Amino acid sequence: MSLHQLIQKCKKNDTKAQSDLYKLFSSKLFSICLKYSRNYAEAEDNLQEAFLTIFEKIAQFKDKGSFEGWMKRITLNTVLQRYREKGVINLVNENSVEEAEVTVDEDEIPLDYLLKIVQQLPDRYRLVFNLYVLDGFSHKEIANMINISVGTSKSNLSRAKQLLKEQIEAYKLRTHTQSL
Amino acid sequence: MKHKKNIERLFQEAFKDFEATPTPVAWDKLQEKLTKKERQKRKVIPLWMRFAGVAALLLLFFTLGNSWLNTRRNSIPTDVVTSPSEETSSPASPKTTLQEKNTDALNTVTPDKESAASTKESIPHKNEEENNPVFAKPENTIANEAVVSNNVIVNKAEASTDSQNQNLKPSQNTTLSNKNSATNSPLHPDTISKDAIAHQVSSDSKTQIVPSHNDTERGTKDTGHLPVYSQETLPLIQLTAEDKMRLYTALSSAKVETDKASVEKALADILLEMNKNELTIEEAIAKANDTLEKEKEVNRWQVYANIAPVYYNTLGNGSHIHDQFIHNPKKGEVNTSYGVNVGYALNNKITVRTGVSSLNLSYGTTHVILYENVGIPNAINQFRNLNLVSGGNAENSFPNVMSGDNLFSQQMVPALAEENMGTINQEINYIEVPVELQYNLIDKKFNLQLSGGFSTFFLSNNEIYTETENRRNYIGKANNINDISFSTNIGIGFGYTFSNAFRFNLEPTFKYQLNAYNNTSGNFKPYIIGVYTGLSYKF
């Protein structure tokens, strides 16, 4: 069955088609949720909400553009919405911009560790870091998306990178001492 | 010396092909929610089915009452008017039908109550979930719907930026979805994701730090924010512009909601939003009660005094008097109706109303020859539908009529015929008791409603006059007009509200009479068009 047929069936609330669609795309969308959430459980919650929205709005999807892109946007919106509701974004307005490049020693660091330290970032830092570094949005776009100023976006990114660097160095120190 | 690497590059490369499979439980939960949603959707249909059921029941009552009345009517001899005592007993049954109508109409509230109860139920259920530290996902379970609807706004708001993003940042897609290069990646996505998950799960379950930490964090946040949140303004401050609008509309609509179920629903929404802002359930319920009290202040009752020009005519070509008049020209006439209505708003959309009004109707059959039978009383009355009175100047003269199209009359002296050519005028006065549902389409300063329902007509006066250019004679009564009859009504109401309580109304209404006459000739289907104007007062 083609993706088009699958979408058509989902539009008719076909349970089997919904299941198939989930199987097909859940891991891609879940990676977004994992990056943007605090932990695994929250990521699963976000994934569920995203899929609920997808199934609800799938009738509105006109076969223009990428379906996967559409689903990713919904997922990202779901995640962002959670932060909008929590109101964390508006509370902070840090304008001390540090543009310095943050570098670390080139070492192999496991992805699960990287994911973990991203998740452990404070919400506002994690959000900006993900949007800018991993999903390629500009500071201006981020500012529009989550209602902060460009300056705040930049400084949040900078703080996020600093925190991540500290964590990576701590990890290296740990593995180094272990190997000794 | 190790090579220094930009931290952004490090993460970009690491997450380039990142994919992770959620636990199978996630799908089960999602499916559960999907079916729950589906069920909620289905709940809407029975509400309308119940409305349809009520309508069907009304129709059944009406038909039964109607046929019962008609059989009684037929068993009564032709000189009905002479036996009024028997007839007065008959109104009893339509009255009960009326009562049934009313209770049925009110019964339609029950589904709302049920749904309200179900929303209530859902709240404590979620409370339980929140108390459970392992499955603590209060935002998700409670706010599911709210979040979904929020997304619509978000989608819209960001549609433009999203489309821009697609154009400007193709890298977004590649970083997220480039699956083909998965094998080239130093880390295999499957193993990574599994590892990641395993790691995450194990760290969660072993130390139980992540969930419990979050919860305690949330808990402390709660207590920290409680006094602040109790001020109603703060949630507004914390929300984005779109959410402010949403919350504002939810609150303002909750104030005008008169339907308990929809109020509860609106409140539930607010409650959910509050909840997401880490407000406790107890506080949210207290808030809901506050707003419900506000809701109680809504004016549900409405009194409406009206007066209307009413036009009475027939759709068919028949005559209610006699076969010979079927082809005579008829003319509908404009008369008046006045009365008082009482309305009760079931919710802010639907109002049930009833009332009482006096309705004068008249209907003319023209091109009729008027003559007098001298010395020949009713014995040879050719009109089974008319009870002619003795009258006129001479003691033994009886006024009579015949159609101008009648072959016999054409043979008569033309001059005489011409002079005596006139109109038979049927005048009827009814006491009308309508039971109608009114649906508000627009409820602003100017408002627009659709209304539909039934009217019961109690015959109070019935007179037939003959009219020529200069004479008007009472000749008798029609005996085929039912004492109790019904009509189906449909109308469009226009209103102008000029204060909170007062409103000016203009409501053109079409009433199709169902059993006004017992025994008509040809295709006689009377209807009434009235333009009801008046003032209504809400309290």
Describe the fold and architecture.
The complex is a heterodimer of chains A (about 180) and B (about 550). Chain A is mainly α. Chain A contains 9 helices and 1 strand; from the N terminus they run αααααβαααα. Chain A folds into 2 domains: about 5-85, Rna Polymerase Sigma Factor, Chain: A (Orthogonal Bundle); about 95-180, Winged helix-like DNA-binding domain superfamily/Winged helix DNA-binding domain (Arc Repressor Mutant, subunit A, Orthogonal Bundle). In chain A, helix 1 packs across helix 2 (about 15-35), helix 3 packs across helix 4 (about 65-85) and helix 7 crosses helix 9 (about 150-180). Chain A is globular. The model of chain A has no long low-confidence stretch (mean pLDDT about 85). Helix content of chain B is about 45%, strand content about 30%. In chain B, a hairpin with a 4-residue loop joins strand 8 and strand 9. Chain B is elongated, with a radius of gyration of 37 Å. The N and C termini of chain B lie far apart (about 85 Å). Chains A and B meet through helix 2, helix 3, helix 4, helix 5 and strand 1 of A and strand 1, helix 1, helix 2, helix 6 and helix 7 of B.
Summary, kept brief:
The complex is a heterodimer of chains A (180) and B (539). Chain A is built from 9 helices and 1 strand. Chain A has 180 residues and is mostly helical.
Which helices and strands appear, and what pairs or packs with what?
The complex is a heterodimer of chains A (180) and B (539).
Chain A: H1 3-11, H2 15-36, H3 40-57, H4 67-86, H5 88-91, E1 103-105, H6 111-119, H7 123-134, H8 139-146, H9 150-179
Helix pairs in contact in A: 1-2, 2-3, 2-4, 3-4, 7-9, 8-9
Chain B: E1 4-6, H1 7-14, H2 24-75, H3 84-89, H4 92-107, H5 109-131, H6 138-168, H7 171-177, H8 189-207, H9 209-229, H10 234-238, H11 241-256, H12 260-276, H13 281-296, E2 301-314, E3 330-345, E4 350-374, E5 386-388, E6 397-403, H14 407-411, H15 414-419, E7 421-443, E8 446-467, E9 472-478, E10 484-497, E11 502-513, E12 526-538
Antiparallel strand pairs in B: 2-3, 2-12, 3-4, 4-6, 4-7, 5-9, 7-8, 8-9, 8-10, 10-11, 11-12
